[in-house]
Amino acid sequence: MKKIIVISTSLRNGSNSDQLADKFIQGAMESGNIVEKISLINKEIAFCKGCMACQKIGKCVIKDDVNAIMQKVLEADVICWATPIYYYEMSGQMKVLIDRMNAMYSLNYKFRDVYLLTTAAEDEPEVPKRAEMGLTGWIDCYPKSHLAATLFCGGVDGPRSIEGNSKLEEAYEMGKKV
Asked: Which domain, by its residues, includes 72?
């Protein structure tokens, strides 16, 4: 049994990437894992100021939702990010959260496996590559962890247009294998 944190970065309820996250969660829970979903909807996440105080005190000095999210990420065995792709890159809110979790760099962390679920209107195979590279940059700062798997669902350009897509079943199966 693993403790899994799924971070859904879309700010739209029931978005396509959020639906992939829910299927991943369903599979992971059916396999007996403990799963917590963190949605960034209604979360207060300010931009990093680059003050580097976090490296001295082990948390960010900005008073918002990031320190609580970061603590859950530190204690998880598995992290799964779900993001829409905007202009061939991860969502801005995902990037801001990654930047703000800079305090984790010098702290002990449990996670080993990191997953990435992405959706986009475009359907070409290269569409998620920049988001994968950006996340891999974060993962590289945690040498005991690695990018375990990715799943991209392209061609979903409107709200809930992923419904009935075979990628939902793939996300479910990915979650079951965690």
From this structure: 3-176
